[in-house]
């Protein structure tokens, strides 16, 4: 840049630059319009130079932008995994803290009980009765003998979905149940509350809710499949609720267990042996005594429903299924009685909730990151629960959504071949990983493999839609389309390593578009040949330079015409017409691209296209032979006809047979029917 340009740049870059003052000074100093035009040109040159430098910097740092974007994507994935791990660790730490608090609370309660005498049962019941008199519809709650009040207080209920306050409630915790009553807006005498719900202590689980201001001092009660969220007045009252609820639930379990252990079993009476066959029903009457022999007083069985609730809430799916397997193994050879049926009903309710959670884990609405391995946990647990069909269906839906998302996120590049290369890598890699994961997860469920084959064909249709839209709908050249189809076939062949062959499916989905592409290119070649024929002068080619002649020889040799040297003359002359040479190169190129696209369904399409193209050239030569009167030009035309018949057509037949695997009888018949015949030097010469 000149010194004047540097001064102008520094002036424009200065912080105190004022455009209006600059224009005024420039107008005063200029002698006329010419100075202003020169100054304008300098500013324009400076703007062009700045734009060029900016463009160079963008190109220079383009690779760094791409690498930075990739690193950000990887970092985002790692942060997501780290967040998930930290959440699980925090959940574990909270459960350990709650266990320690519970242990300390137990020890404190024992000390308090030793220091102070307990309230009598009658006093607790009188207290509960006096409180329930304030609850509308709560008179029948005291019908259960031994029921007394443990704790009560005001709470605020929040909506589970949008975390908005719903109503103010008063909770009554009793030794075997929890009563929720709502506040009455219009009080009637001593009645302050209205009965809302009564929950047995075994029917719900209590979960601490993390403080997230302004939402704080909350805890959740899970009554599967429903749940309710309550907010205490402060953190101290919330802590008391959590501790007393946990302690009361444990006391009830312990009391029930001791009560069952203290029950004296009835001594079985030995039935008399009867020879009367009609007494079989009477002999089966002691079955009730057999029911008492099933021991369900074990601590892990008593706490099993609650443990399942906790496992589901903490997303410990493996632990929940392990507990169910342990129970099934224990009850496998035990007789079925009423108590066992009740226990199984409670467990089945938890299993239904567990299945719903696992189904949600596999739903396409969840994050699709992590690949097929991310679904293994939920799939394996569903299979262990005997729901392999549902697991298979959800797994394949999840993977289909992942493949569709990956294809949509693929950026459409300017170069079609580059886009197809990326598309094939994404699709077939995902398909291969899905197949391997499917084989690993469903190894013992051979009945699911047919579903995977159907899913693979459906997913292949999704791939072909994106493929055809980019390759065929955009009217790419036949050579580009052939390379793209070849690339897709190569990737499809890689699936045979795992025993999955989708080549026929790919071909059947592409056959319509390939037929249209061949026909379109066939029409283009015919139109180009007719146009050259209309301008044909039947003159020898003069390539002017030896380099051009050498290049033409190499092109003909690559087309399979090894004897082209015999048609070259002295210096740079070729004893053939430009039209015939151009036709030969274009037709051989069409043949090679067509063979890349070839599969059996396209046999007749490719064959008929070649036949139509050849007939156009042959008919033009035949017409020229019949119409030409100059003997020298007739001889030259005859030489071109011999080149077509004796050199080009045999090469087309041989190359077609090599690419397809069988001879083309139609091309052989065409060559026989178009052989050039010279009757005598003075008569008309034509191709018969």
Automatic annotation (TrEMBL):
<dbReference type="InterPro" id="IPR016159">
    <property type="entry name" value="Cullin_repeat-like_dom_sf"/>
</dbReference>
<dbReference type="InterPro" id="IPR001849">
    <property type="entry name" value="PH_domain"/>
</dbReference>
<comment type="function">
    <text>Component of the exocyst complex involved in the docking of exocytic vesicles with fusion sites on the plasma membrane.</text>
</comment>
<feature type="region of interest" description="Disordered">
    <location>
        <begin position="252"/>
        <end position="289"/>
    </location>
</feature>
<keyword id="KW-0653">Protein transport</keyword>
<comment type="similarity">
    <text>Belongs to the EXO84 family.</text>
</comment>
<dbReference type="GO" id="GO:0000145">
    <property type="term" value="C:exocyst"/>
</dbReference>
<keyword id="KW-0966">Cell projection</keyword>
<keyword id="KW-0813">Transport</keyword>
<keyword id="KW-0268">Exocytosis</keyword>
<dbReference type="InterPro" id="IPR033961">
    <property type="entry name" value="Exo84"/>
</dbReference>
<feature type="compositionally biased region" description="Acidic residues">
    <location>
        <begin position="279"/>
        <end position="289"/>
    </location>
</feature>
<feature type="region of interest" description="Disordered">
    <location>
        <begin position="667"/>
        <end position="688"/>
    </location>
</feature>
<feature type="domain" description="PH">
    <location>
        <begin position="148"/>
        <end position="250"/>
    </location>
</feature>
<dbReference type="GO" id="GO:0015031">
    <property type="term" value="P:protein transport"/>
</dbReference>
<dbReference type="GO" id="GO:0006887">
    <property type="term" value="P:exocytosis"/>
</dbReference>
<dbReference type="InterPro" id="IPR042561">
    <property type="entry name" value="Exo84_C_1"/>
</dbReference>
<dbReference type="Pfam" id="PF16528">
    <property type="entry name" value="Exo84_C"/>
</dbReference>
<dbReference type="Pfam" id="PF25345">
    <property type="entry name" value="PH_EXO84"/>
</dbReference>
<dbReference type="InterPro" id="IPR011993">
    <property type="entry name" value="PH-like_dom_sf"/>
</dbReference>
<dbReference type="GO" id="GO:0048471">
    <property type="term" value="C:perinuclear region of cytoplasm"/>
</dbReference>
<feature type="compositionally biased region" description="Polar residues">
    <location>
        <begin position="17"/>
        <end position="30"/>
    </location>
</feature>
<protein>
    <recommendedName>
        <fullName>Exocyst complex component 8</fullName>
    </recommendedName>
</protein>
<dbReference type="Pfam" id="PF08700">
    <property type="entry name" value="VPS51_Exo84_N"/>
</dbReference>
<dbReference type="InterPro" id="IPR032403">
    <property type="entry name" value="Exo84_C"/>
</dbReference>
<keyword id="KW-0963">Cytoplasm</keyword>
<dbReference type="GO" id="GO:0030426">
    <property type="term" value="C:growth cone"/>
</dbReference>
<feature type="region of interest" description="Disordered">
    <location>
        <begin position="17"/>
        <end position="36"/>
    </location>
</feature>
<feature type="compositionally biased region" description="Basic and acidic residues">
    <location>
        <begin position="252"/>
        <end position="263"/>
    </location>
</feature>
<dbReference type="GO" id="GO:0006893">
    <property type="term" value="P:Golgi to plasma membrane transport"/>
</dbReference>
<dbReference type="InterPro" id="IPR042560">
    <property type="entry name" value="Exo84_C_2"/>
</dbReference>
